[in-house]
Amino acid sequence: MSVSDFYWSERARSxxxxxxxxxxxxxxxxxxxxETLVRGWSNNRDKPFWSLSIVVAALSAADGxxxxxxxxxxxxxxxxxxxxxxxxxxxxxxxxxxxDDDASLLLETPDGAFRLTQNRLRLLSKLTEFFLGCDEFAxxxxxxxxxxxxxxxxxxxxxxxxxxxxxxxxRIGYRFRTNNFLDAHAGxxxxxxxxxxxxxxxxxxxxxxxxxxxxxxxERYKTYEATYQAFANFAxxxxxxxxxNAASNADDIADPALAGAIAGIVANDDAEVDTPGxxxxxxxGDEEENDDADEPEMRSADPSVLGxxxxxxxxxxxxxxxxxxxxxxxxxxxxxxxSLRLIAFHPVxxxxxxxxxxxxxxxxxxxxxxxxxxxxxxxxxxxxEALGARATSWLEVAFALAxxxxxxxxxxxxxxxxxLETLARSRAxxxxxxxxxxxxxxxxxxPALVQAREMSDRFAGLFSRLFAADAAAExxxxxxFATDRSAFAAEFARRYIADGxxxTASSVTADAAGASGTE
Length: 519
Prior knowledge:
- The chain is an all-alpha fold.
- 63% of the residues lie in helices and 3% in strands.
- It has 22 helices and three strands.
- The protein has a three-stranded antiparallel beta sheet.
- A hairpin with a 2-residue loop joins strand 2 (105-109) and strand 3 (112-116).
- Helix 6 (118-137) crosses helix 7 (140-153), helix 15 (316-334) crosses helix 20 and helix 16 (336-358) packs parallel to helix 21 (476-496).
- The chain is elongated and about 85 Å long.
- The two termini are 32 Å apart.
- Residues 1-5, 183-187, 244-301 and 499-519 have low confidence and may be disordered.
């Protein structure tokens, strides 16, 4: 089976191969086992797990004993023959009937019927064997326990217990797919975006994201943000597939389908961005290494730490912007225009959604769809630059509190003086505390401040260079914003205005119900 079919992890691929080492299996059967694990049967991923639970219980009812493991070593013909001869009353207490209609076995339950061909019985056997050994036998004990519970149902059990066992089997399947498949769910964002890009030679540009969101046939993604995230996740998955294949299965790179997808998602990495204040970070890093062992452990370098900290170093709007920059990450650095659109126009769409849901409007819908509230690109870049400057200022404070005065080191003396001056000017109550206590508080947020400064400086440089590249336009950022504002306004009007006069369409409320994501 080609890894291009499912984008398996290295472990999953090796374990799946090992599953078929004991005998010769047709490629079609191998693929069917993978399909069963990934997609289930007949558009229902749980059907194999329902069938597994019922078959094990039925085999136990027929034999009067067992631990459920015989589903692995019995062949499909024998299993079918045993279940065909099963007494009609054997599983009556579970509300289940098993009957043979010549073409296949039919398992009738209170929730519906499950059809088992002989091939599906073989698939269940192999799937059970896979669950016992997958993820380095991580689920073996749980699987054996569930099989034993299934056998107990034959003598004394109820349908509710059978459903619970089925859910436990399903959870193991979901957990494995989540950990080992890049395309974990049938009909997932990965599949949808992959299908869309496949018809466009896997060209993923900034305008591709907007075009997909604004496509009238796009009925899944209600917001530009949800569309952006779907493409970002797809790009990350393809990057992982590129790395995995290059490292462990180079032959599959030649597969035209996979090669086209991997080659088409090309990063637009810029040269390294200068980060002002690196000397300060170097000094702080030296200081941290010399901290006493009794100092509290450094908290994770995450911008959200700054929002939770009681120092109140940033306002809520600044934290929101920092969180957005952290969220878009490398994809945002590679798709800068698309990222600026997200930062500028998602708040407008969010406001529209809230107004439609609550019926309360600070700004009329007819005005809001024109994007008058959107922050222009020059303003966004200025906000990001200000974030970097503010983070640097607080890093100077952190250094001043954590260091001793040293007149012989100009770097140390300058940073310390700047930090002390900032602290002296501050009137914030959160900063009016004992210096030793304040020092510990700043130590806790220093990694997050370093990340915030580096991230802000990087994105400010990337976004600025995006517009500086057009030397022919004196105000390229303003022109770009005006163009994008017109495009977003037209799309918002199409989605939320019935006739352009300000009256909402009859379907707007239903549309807004899913406006924060996908349906």
